[in-house]
Design goal:
Blueprint (H helix, E strand, L loop, with lengths): L5 H24 L1 H7 L7 E2 L2 E2 L2 E10 L2 E8 L2 E8 L3 E9 L1 H7 L1
Antiparallel strand pairs: 1-2, 3-4, 4-5, 5-6
Length: 103
């Protein structure tokens, strides 16, 4: 009823699908290697070179909102973060490292 190579074509299809799943797993697991291989730079350019963003501290206020102190290229910001938005509450000035570098 079925052609003689039917089982072979199903086996080949299953092997190709398994191979694609393994490749997908490896790419998701090692994104940094993929970006390096494809020569993709995820840093945001600025006049000084690259912008460095670091979250210094986070404090939960409620289940879906928090306060964060974020260092963006040496400038410290107090941000209010909810599920729907991020608001700049206050600029806290330069970080201690940036302040000491200017002296």
């Amino acid at each position: 009823m079925y052609p003689s190579n039917y089982a072979g074509s199903i086996t080949l299809t299953v092997l190709i699908l398994i191979g694609l799943l393994i490749i997908r797993y490896l790419l998701l697991r090692h994104k940094d290697l993929l970006f390096k291989f494809m020569n993709i730079n995820l840093d945001m350019p600025s006049k000084k070179g690259t912008v460095i963003i670091q979250i210094e501290t986070t404090t939960k206020i409620s289940k879906s909102s928090s306060l964060m102190i974020v260092n963006v290229d040496g400038e410290r910001l107090l941000l209010g973060v909810t599920q729907d938005s991020i608001s700049n509450i206050k600029s806290l000035g330069k970080s201690e490292r940036e302040y000491n570098n200017e002296r």
